[in-house]
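Slide 14.
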Amino acid sequence: MPNPKRILVLAPHTDDGEFGCGGTIARLVRQGHQVYYVAFSTAEESVPEGLPRNILELEVREATRLLGVEPERLLIYRYTVRTLHRHRQEILEEMVRMRREIQPDLVLLPCSHDLHQDHETVHREALRAFRNGTMLGYEMPRNNITFTAQAFVVLTEEDLARKVAALQCYESQKFRGYTDERYIRALALTRGVQIGVDYAEAFEVLRWVMPL
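Slide 15: predicted structure.
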């Protein structure tokens, strides 16, 4: 694997990056790499009744902090949930700006089989914006009918614990079954068993560029 220095995580909504590759984020930060996290929607329209409209923004700030992402490397956009497809060109232009300013060595994004319309938009526009670099698609089983596990990142217990802690920051999402720590650990255990380690996260290889 090339030695990435700057990693860009593209999350259609707050918490997608933590679910898809939170353990990998924790590991990369622990190893001294610069991780940038971009959330395109704070999904205010989906916030449960009685909670502040900006609760997911507050939660993603705390969650990424626990993973080790520097506050200045967290970018938050406020596109309305489930409407990202209406802003494809604008999102593409923002990604091109990220490519120019951040110059990421590795981009982590939703996989090619993600069914959510916002995830599909981020995936498609990222393929255009970062087509000359290495891209890995992260796994979100609740959105994937199929998933091709072509690359694995080995996680330590510390990495996995940070992922669990980050996801526990999302108090507003506790009613969703996929936030259960047992599920998070079971998926990491399953991927670990596949490669003979304790824990891992799996990725789809979208493009792999080996530098000179």
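Speaker note: The CA atoms of residues 116 and 143 lie 6 Å apart.
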